[in-house]
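Known limitations

Files may contain more than one protein. Parsers should not assume a single record per file. Below, a two-record file is shown to illustrate correct handling: read the sequence, read the token line, then continue until end of file.
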Amino acid sequence: MIVTRLDEAQLLQRVADLADLLVDTVADGASVGFLAPLDRRAAMVWWKERAAAVAAGQMAVWAARDGGRTVGTVSLAFADKPNSRHRAELVKLMVHRDARGRGLGRSLLTTAEEAAIGAGITLLHLDTETDSPAERLYGSAGWTRAGVIPDYAASPDGVLRPTTIYYKHI
């Protein structure tokens, strides 16, 4: 698998592939901000809207490809306030169901962490559904659990679920 950082043009070229990944992730029950069933066109629109943030340097997006298909992604959302430019949020770490169990989630996480260090970021944070498989990944990668917010977001099936906040000094 090849993991590459996407610029605006590359993101727009891969919108359909990224949308398929997002639809698969939501269909599998991952709480990444969408309700099921997620319409592919809506997923494409969401990804297209990220292109401006990538072009402006407000977001970095990486995609993992296997055999010409996007099977994973991760993003960093950079803070825009002068007092918070030392931190970034890790967002939308997704691995296609067909590509799980091969270390791709860990590889994407490491890629984002190393890029953050290179960009002068010293603190990362994220949120994830409490008791989700993602929690095991973040815990084993040295992230610190800051706390749980009950009923924070609806799972893809519409049920309110708690969210766990994590951070990592890098």
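...continuing to the second record:
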Amino acid sequence: MRHFVILLFVLINISCKKNPESFIEHINGYWEIEKVILASGEERDYTYNEFIDYFQVSDDLKGIRKKLKPTLRGTFETTDDSENFILKIENDSLNIYYKTLFSSWKETILLATNQELKIIDSHKNVFIYKQYKSLNLN
């Protein structure tokens, strides 16, 4: 049954698919993970995140993904975690190709808007991000 749900989810996303080129303009920025839908169908909600992901894409479709730790002052502490990537549109999909000294991998962007980012990895896990909003303690 779980495999049916995953297949249905993927088919719905494919049938409602937007032009992947339109996703590029929405990737830049600060993203907080909201939920992961594992390939098994299990869902994991994230109500609190110590770290957020920062994406920066240049005009040549090269970019960087960095882990940041928000502070109570509204600034960020940077981590050593950083990956360079290249975006490529292939077969009506927007793919992210990462390469580090130790590994290389691909992810596919299923959706990118001002408010939401959905990425699927090679293990068929779907990561759902929301745009990060800093804490307002005033």
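Parsers that stop after the first record will miss the second one. For reference, the second record is described as follows. The first helix runs from residue 2 to 15.
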